[in-house]
Amino acid sequence: MNTIASVTLPHHVHAPRYDRQQLQSRIVHFGFGAFHRAHQALLTDRVLNAQGGDWGICEISLFSGDQLMSQLRAQNHLYTVLEKGADGNQAIIVGAVHECLNAKLDSLAAIIEKFCEPQVAIVSLTITEKGYCIDPATGALDTSNPRIIHDLQTPEEPHSAPGILVEALKRRRERGLTPFTVLSCDNIPDNGHVVKNAVLGMAEKRSPELTGWIKEHVSFPGTMVDRIVPAATDESLAEISQHLGVNDPCAISCEPFIQWVVEDNFVAGRPAWEVAGVQMVNDVLPWEEMKLRMLNGSHSFLAYLGYLSGFAHISDCMQDRAFRHAARTLMLNEQAPTLQLRCRFNTICGQVNCTFLLIRR
Question: pLDDT tens digits for 275-291?
Answer without folding.
Answer: 999 999 999 998 888 88
